[in-house]
Amino acid sequence: MSADEERARRRRTIAGALFVVALLGLSIWVARAMSERQALERCLASGRRDCANISIPSDRSYVPAR
Question: What are the structural domain ranges in the chain?
Answer without folding.
Answer: 3-44
